[in-house]
Amino acid sequence: MSSQAVRADRGIITPFNVIAGIIVIMGMVLTAWRFAGGLGAVTNLDNHYPWGLWIGLDLMAGVALAAGGFVTSAAVHVFGMKKYSSAVRPAILTGFLGYALVVIALHYDVGRPWRLPYPFIMSQGTTSLLFEVAACVALYLTVLFLEFSPAAMEWLGLKRARLIVVRLMLLLTIFGVVLSTLHQSSLGALFLIAPGKLHPLWYSSYLPVFFFVSAVVAGLSMVIFESSITARYFADKMDETHKQQKTTVAFGFAKAAAFTLAGYFFAKVIGIAVDNNWHYLATGYGAWFLVELLGFVALPAFLFAIGAREQRLGLVKFTAGWSVFGIILNRLNVSLIAFNYHLPASERYFPSWQEIGTSIFLITLGLIAFKFIVTRMPILYSHPDYPDEH
Amino acid sequence: MEGILTLHDFMLYTKSVTYIIVVGALLGLAGFFWFLNERDEDPDENPPAEH
Known about the structure:
The complex is a heterodimer of chains A (390) and B (51).
Chain A: H1 2-5, H2 15-37, H3 39-42, H4 53-65, H5 68-78, H6 88-109, H7 118-121, H8 129-156, H9 159-167, H10 169-189, H11 207-233, H12 240-275, H13 284-309, H14 313-337, H15 353-374
Helix pairs in contact in A: 2-15, 4-6, 4-14, 4-15, 5-6, 5-10, 5-11, 6-8, 6-15, 8-9, 8-10, 10-11, 11-12, 11-14, 12-13, 12-14, 13-14
Chain B: H1 7-37
């Protein structure tokens, strides 16, 4: 495999490179615009909406979709499900890049980004949920970097350093699970402070639970989705173990996602019952809520179950993509669409083209980094010097 | 809705409905779990050959 893995790269002028190059150039212009002109020059944010697309999509959805790292490493390293071992490195890489992009996106969104370390060194604010989120994201990004580092060290030939990190892997995994549980739920808890702003169908005292459970679904779905993408575009980088485990991972994770989605569905229904919000279901927002609940929670739960039961790989892959979209929609609903629902349409927030362009730029950066790493480091194959430790 | 006038009414009503849904959810999840795993092979049926 290694001889295939280090094969000569294709030409530079490929459709992906051309499109990515154009997006990166535009993104750099937008970046200069953002930091030269400030938030007001490029965003539609105002006092009603201090958080916009960069928080709703890049941070809220980004963190949820990066949950595959802790879900997969917990399954393999903590629960001993070695049949999913080939999924660990791609999932960790996706999680690491996802969290790295979250931190980069925060630099765009925060008015004075050079003050991002302040919660740790100047004013701790330990009673704030944001402090907890900041601490957990910073620590978990470090943990993900360490979990990912053996692949980079194998590539660089740093055997002794790699051995130290590999010995710490179980500890890092447990640390990662704890940190993820804390901040995934805390991101939902951030909205507990705004009961008058968030629509009652989305507002619930169970928001932290909803965010955590849906993040597990997002992680499982993202691993299946990413696995299907890599199998299509990086098949020449995969060794036999990865090719054989690919379907095992897809069906196993689909089964887990189906059951978790079913639990999430019932938790959401219980959330409505506890607050007696049934009557809101007959409104316009109620219809939109039902689209999310039935179309992006109940339906993927059923489709995942059918796919896993009848071993239909195509259906599982499609449902994974559908479920990923559903999680993004949920985070946008909570942070933007159902937020400030009482405002007239003229005062509602819609992202500027510069905000949308910057988000596309950041996602493209993630894809470029993923491609760079996967084509060079032993992510989808075992390094020949460490054949049995993957 | 018309019958709910006090906090006590609200708590009684919502808790009652919630408990009924929780029981339904537990039964539903058990059934869904069975549906998910119904076709899985039982490892005891085909034990690996002993060497």
